[in-house]
Amino acid sequence: ADALIGGKSSYGKHALVENFGLVDKTYEDALAEYELIKQEDQFTNAYARYFADYTGIILLILPIFMIVALSLKDQLAGATDLIHSRNISSRRLVITRYLAVVIMVFLPVLLLAVYETYRVVAMYPGEILDYFAFVKHTFLWLLPTILVVVASGYFVTEWSGTILAIVLQFALFFMSMSIGMQQMDGG
Asked: pTM higher than 0.90, yes or no?
């Protein structure tokens, strides 16, 4: 049937092995996998990775609206001229505004990570857990995402003076999501 269709169909050798060549996991295999997760991952790291994955998706989109709104509001209100007339270096102004937005985006994420740690710890009483897994993943995985999104958003908004940053961020979001969908493989 695969040859008649032209090859690379659902009836090909690879697809048949992948779909019908799987063996169900035995109880002993499942128990061994559970013990491995318990010892190596300490439960919290697996949940923290999921937290970082899904929160990262949200952080690719939401901060851009705050950045564009702040920049354009300053331009429309004429605050840009007032700010530039003050005795502050451009570098200091840009760094201060950048860090203010990064902190305001990062703080709720960090608080949510602490809350999720509490929830996972409550699910596994008496187990040896990594109590800092969510915080570690937040700093090592989500903070770089926030830094890049805020920096690129500020750059494009200040450069163009329009909402072009939102359009570019949505394009980047959909492009990265479609690339990631091809690599996702659950088991």
From this structure: no
